[in-house]
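Hi F.,

I've been meaning to write this up properly since the lab meeting, where we talked about keeping a consistent format for the predictions we share between groups. The idea is simple: the sequence comes first, exactly as it goes in, then the structure tokens exactly as they come out, then a line or two of notes. No screenshots and no reformatting. I'm using this chain as the first example so we have something concrete to point to.
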Amino acid sequence: MINNEILRQIRYTLDLSDSEMISIFGLADCKITRKEVCDWLKKEEDPSYELCNDVILESFLNGLIYEKRGKKDDGAPKVLGLLTNNAIFMKLKIAFNLKAEEVLEIIALADFRISKHELSAFFRKESHKHYRGCKDQILRYFLKGLQLKFRKNAS
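Output, unedited:
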């Protein structure tokens, strides 16, 4: 998935203002401007559209975890800048403090079903024999389910 699309979906789901977005980035020690946020959130056809790279999205997701769960005492995770759909899925699961059953319910809200075993494969290490890469469509279903669960007046 395109990072900008993920950022837009999360913003819409949580009904975040530009200032709130900037604040979430700040929690992960990422200093950004309102213009940068606006340019990342624009549609690709817009001449001011800017691509949101993995480092930026990962910083936002880390900030979202801090916003929702608080910072750990052992320090901030390093921003690797190599985000996969699996890593995005995991960070969102952590941010929203979701258990496997809750994730399955959220995905079901988007009219999609997977088993608990299929889900756990997304959260394994890549070297594990039962690891499975998360396809764009699965992440889209999860984001859509989050929207239906957490967005006020979602339809």
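Notes:
The chain has eight helices and no strands.
The chain has a mean pLDDT of 93.

If this format works for you, I'll send the rest the same way.

G.
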